[in-house]
């Protein structure tokens, strides 16, 4: 995951935060998963500051186009989303619907 550039890292982290907000609240385990993800991808301080804002308030949906995710990284992004959803031990119907929507937009199998 460390091969992602700054734009791709932010795109991944933004998506992870959006998925965590799918049920209108972020659980502590989801925050922990996103923190671990930031560490794994080597997010620098300025990206971490942005993610903290997204954890306090959902990122605007219109600012994100899943189709802009490079094809080579789509499965990685989807795996990260699944991890966020499962982090608190349960997947809500809203999170499941968000994952279905994202999977279809990315052209991946569910």
Describe the protein:
It contains five helices and no strands. The longest helix has 15 residues, at 6-20. 61% of the residues lie in helices and 0% in strands. The two termini are 22 Å apart. The protein has one domain (6-106): TerB-like (Orthogonal Bundle), CATH 1.10.3680. It has 110 residues and is mostly helical. Helix 1 (6-20) packs antiparallel against helix 2 and helix 2 (28-40) packs antiparallel against helix 4. The radius of gyration is 13 Å and the shape is globular.
CATH architecture classification: Orthogonal Bundle
Low-confidence stretches: none
* Gyration radius over CA: 13 Å
Helix proportion of residues, in percent? 55-70%
Q: In CATH's first tier, which class applies?
A: Mainly Alpha
Tell me the count of domains: 1
Spell out the key features of this protein.
110 residues; 61% helix; globular
Helix and strand arrangement:
Elements: H1 6-20, H2 28-40, H3 45-56, H4 74-86, H5 93-106
Helix pairs in contact: 1-2, 1-3, 1-4, 2-4, 4-5
Describe the structure in brief.
Helix content is 61%, strand content 0%. The chain has 110 residues and is mainly alpha-helical.
